[in-house]
């Protein structure tokens, strides 16, 4: 669809269900107005999906989506951190224009794609991890975790209040509620279901049966695991995301010494062991670091398997009811994640593992099964894509492009050849300096502006981003061209450094409707 020159649907308020009745005759589910299920996880690296990488794990149901749809190999976050990425997905705007550059409160009064779909006659639901502080808007039904949410015994909130699910596991609970919504959704209207999981976010707490399944597994260390950060020391020297030094007793699920007072217990949980006795062996140095890496992978991939099972349950339900014929199923995550590459866990940096998002779409009758796309797409494109799928006009002020033509195998000749990235959260407890940059199909230029440090990578010759070419005379012309393009893009997306100095004292939002539960989350889940 063409973007609207005059936006008539961009009111901030919700459209009541009764107000949609007049539209229902034209809002019947149809090939032109399919149901949309958007399954979204937190911190799921593309490399932890076998459709992207068969060497690490097996995800049969994500592969099932891929076999019946399209895999996007070059989908990227434009600010690799959870809350900002989610705000970008909802609004189709970069962080500096949607007002959510860090873990600050999302302004729910602004235009979002769920509001526009709701106004166009869709029944809309948000279930699971919201992580935007303000209440969801644009949804006929919502049932969300407060803040990060908990893996075990989670609390979930609706507009009416909160419920703690004793004995519940977050991934299973979200799945059950998602299927319940589909079962009860009006049959005379298409629906949008946002099924958002907490997993596999830290502290990587698997379901007991899957923890048992993975407890003895070992995994090959990544090629860059022992990276010494030569030529990139300025950007990485102070980071607090190395498995060696920052994967904690709490992450390792170690049992604390008995009798520790609360302040000492907190320090113990947050510390990273330098020596560990495992099955009678004393581990130090590289042996200990590799042990930490294996424990990380065991728990992380066990959490991923629960999500994969969830996808299988939803696909089974759609096939059993025949809804698969007119339902688009999208799987993605809010950003990528380091799985030991460069010795790291977490995200934030503009390096490939951090910014690369999984993006798999099944749309029967539209997408040719088992296909792949290699064009550059970003999370800024998601909102326009959802609107285009539904035949809803796209507001002129959205900053991305609909990916629907790519899904149909018809990439426009003027499709982007590069994109803009900016990470703001500096200072922060993870030690990642603020930076912005441009990534093209072959090159990447990053500027850590507070450090006045530049990095340039040739992704064709150096896909692992180990050799910083900035200042290399052989790349002088490329460096000049990329620098010019970076500032042209910065201007094009209207980044005027609006939030360059906007920081929070911690990673937790200072204001939250669910303050009591946020304290629970902070203690146990960050």
Model description:
- By secondary structure, the chain is α/β, with parallel strands linked by helices.
- Helices cover 28% and strands 17% of the residues.
- The chain is built from 15 helices and 21 strands.
- It has an eight-stranded mixed beta sheet with strand order 6-5-9-2-12-14-3-15, with helices on both faces.
- A hairpin with a 2-residue loop joins β7 (155-158) and β8.
- Residues 1-26 and 506-526 have low confidence and may be disordered.
Which helices and strands appear, and what pairs or packs with what?
Blueprint: E1 3-4, E2 35-41, H1 60-67, E3 70-72, E4 75-76, H2 82-91, H3 95-98, H4 113-119, E5 123-129, E6 141-145, E7 155-158, E8 161-164, H5 170-184, E9 191-196, H6 208-214, H7 233-236, H8 243-246, H9 262-270, E10 276-278, E11 281-283, H10 285-321, E12 327-333, H11 352-355, E13 356-357, E14 359-362, E15 371-373, E16 377-378, H12 382-389, E17 394-395, H13 404-407, E18 418-423, E19 435-440, E20 443-448, E21 453-458, H14 476-492, H15 515-525
Quick take:
Helix content is 28%, strand content 17%. It is an alpha/beta fold. An 8-stranded mixed sheet has the order 6-5-9-2-12-14-3-15, sandwiched between helices.
* Neighbour order of strands in the largest sheet: 6-5-9-2-12-14-3-15
Overall pLDDT level: 91
Domains, number = 2
Envelope shape: globular
Q: Which blocks of ≥5 consecutive residues have pLDDT under 50? A: 1-26, 506-526
Just name the CATH architecture of the largest domain: 3-Layer(aba) Sandwich
Q: What is the level 1 CATH name of the largest domain?
A: Alpha Beta
User: Total helix count?
Assistant: 15
Name the CATH homologous superfamily of the largest domain.
Alkaline Phosphatase, subunit A
Reported by name, the CATH topology of the largest domain is Alkaline Phosphatase, subunit A
